[in-house]
Amino acid sequence: EAGVAQSPRYKIIEKRQSVAFWCNPISGHATLYWYQQILGQGPKLLIQFQNNGVVDDSQLPKDRFSAERLKGVDSTLKIQPAKLEDSAVYLCASSHRPPGLAGAPAYEQYFGPGTRLTVT
Amino acid sequence: AQTVTQSQPEMSVQEAETVTLSCTYDTSESDYYLFWYKQPPSRQMILVIRQEAYKQQNATENRFSVNFQKAAKSFSLKISDSQLGDAAMYFCAYRSAEWEGGGADGLTFGKGTHLIIQP
C-alpha cells in the first residue's frame, strides 16, 4: 500500500513570495490533515478535511494560509505572502476514520515525509 | 483545550539498556487516546504505540510499553533493550475520542524528547 505522498520535499523562498504544497493521501482515506512543525516543536494542526469539507481550521492563519481538497482526494496548502516565521516542516496526514460514529475506534493517522520550507 | 507536556528535551541511554520518556497531559475529557510517535531525521512520523483511555491495561508493542496513569494524567514510554535504530525524536500526542459525525480529531503534540543511543 502506497503511503502519503507530499511534494516538494524542500522549498526555499523569500519573504512576501507565495508557495504551495501538495499532498496525496492513502487511497480510500477520507480524512486529511495538514500540520505545521516549527523547529524544536511538535506538529500543530492547521486544518482537517473530511472528504472535501473542512472539519477544523481554527489554527489556520487565514489571512495568509489557504487550503483546498477538491474532489476529496489530493490537497494543496498555500501561503501568500510568506513570512519568516512560516519556516517549518509542513506535514500531511490521512486516516480512514469512519464517519458518523460516536466514540472513535482505534484508527491511525498516517503521515507523509513532509515539506521543509525555508523563508529568507 | 488539551495540552501535552514533555519535560525532557533530551535523553541518553546505553545500547541494550532501558529508558523511560515522560509525558503529562491536561484535559477535561474522559474519553481520549494517547500516542507515542517516533520521528527520525527523515521526518517521517511513525506510530510507536497507542493507549485508549478507557482501558486500564497498559499497552505494549514488543520492546515498547507505556505506563498510563489516568488520574495523574501521565503517560510514559519505556523502551527496553535500546537499539541504535531507536535514536530519534519521540513525541507524545493526544486525540479526543469525544466526537460524533464530522468532529475534529487532530492530534495535539508535545514538544518532543530527543533520544540518543550510546553504542
What does this structure look like?
The complex is a heterodimer of chains A (120) and B (119). Chain A has 120 residues and is mostly beta strands. Chain A is built from no helices and 11 strands. Helix content of chain A is 0%, strand content 46%. Chain A starts with a strand and ends with a strand. Chain B is built from no helices and 12 strands. Chain B has strands spanning 3-5, 10-14, 19-21, 24-26, 32-39, 46-52, 60-61, 64-69, 74-79, 88-96, 108-109, 113-118. In chain B, the strands form 3 sheets. In chain B, strands 2, 5, 6, 10, 11 and 12 form a 6-stranded mixed beta sheet that branches. In chain B, strands 3-9-8-7 form a 4-stranded antiparallel beta sheet, with no helix packed on it. In chain B, strands 1-4 form a two-stranded antiparallel sheet. Chain B is globular, with a radius of gyration of 14 Å. Chains A and B meet through strand 4, strand 5, strand 6 and strand 9 of A and strand 6, strand 10 and strand 11 of B.
